[in-house]
Amino acid sequence: MAKILAFAGSNSSTSINYQLIKYTSSLIENHDVRTMNMANYPFPMFSVDLEKNEGYSNSLVEFKNDIQKSDALIISVNEHNSMLSAYFKNVLDWLSRLERKFLLDKKLFLMSTSNGKRGGLSALEFARDVLLPRFGAEIVSTFTLPGFEDNYDIEKGISAEDLNAEHRKCLHDFLKTL
User: Fold this and answer.
1) What is the rounded distance in angstroms from the CA atom of residue 23 to the CA atom of residue 68?
2) Is the model's pLDDT at 131 over the cut of 90?
3) SS (H, E, C) the chain
4) Which pLDDT band holds residue 16 (cuts at 50, 70, 90)?
5) What is the Rg, in whole angstroms, of the alpha carbon atoms belonging to the chain?
6) Which are the contacts of 71, defined by CB distance < 8 A and separation ≥ 6?
7) Which positions ≥6 away from 51 have C-beta within 8 Å?
8) Per the count of CB atoms within 10 A, which of 1, 7, 63, 155 is most buried?
9) What is the pTM (predicted TM-score) of this model?
10) How far apart are CA 52 and CA 167, in angstroms?
11) Does residue 129 contact residue 135 with C-beta atoms inside 8 Å?
12) Phi and psi for 122 in degrees, rounded to 5?
């Protein structure tokens, strides 16, 4: 049984990426899955001065430890203006200052969603190609859910059959690596 940590790259209390995380986590059996709502983690904006004068918050150190105790991660990144959100980039900045390769040897299922036609694809691609491998992650599966409002039902999950089938396949591919 693998330990899986799942969270969205958003600190919004109404995050659709967190809804996707909760749905995805609900489909996993025979593994220990812990979801984290990042709206409960208001990390300050990174600065070298703040790091020097105040160090690292307990919640940041605990978050890094939670990541390192996990065998795998599921992350759904949100997109602001075709980029990762400032919040998620900030979290990565802080974590990488604690330990550069904080994702070393972690298997990762990377997702994104938005109400747009591309489903946050630009943010997902940036995270997949540039950011997360730099910190040691092995991204084994990716999924993008476009048109969240049209393709997601709060009761049923992903409502579009083709997208639901693709999501389940990506999740299956991820889980079989654990």
Assistant:
1) 23
2) no
3) CCEEEEEECCCCCCCHHHHHHHHHHHCCCCCEEEEECHHHCCCCCCCHHHHHHHCCCHHHHHHHHHHHHCCEEEEEECEECCEECHHHHHHHHHHHHHCCCCCCCCEEEEEEECCCCCCCHHHHHHHHHHHCHHHCCEEEEEEEECCHHHHEECCCEECCHHHHHHHHHHHHHHHCCC
4) very high
5) 16
6) 2, 3, 4, 106, 107, 178
7) 97
8) 7
9) 0.97
10) 43
11) no
12) -60, -45
Please answer whether residues 169 and 140 qualify as being in contact, where contact means their C-beta atoms are separated by less than 8 angstroms: no
Q: Where are the domains of the chain?
A: 3-175
In CATH terms, is domain 3-175 a member of 3.40.50.360? yes
Angle at CA of residue 139, ends 150 and 130, nearest 5° = 90
Q: Rounded to 5 degrees, what are φ and ψ at 45?
A: -65, 130
Tokens representing 72 are: 């795998």
Helix axes 86-98, 58-69, angle to 10 degrees: 80
Shortest CA distance to 73 belongs to which of 42, 46, 36, 29?
36
Ramachandran angles phi, psi of 72, nearest 5°: -155, 165
What is the rounded distance in angstroms from the CA atom of residue 35 to the CA atom of residue 141? 18
d(Cα 144, Cα 105) in Å, to the nearest integer?
23
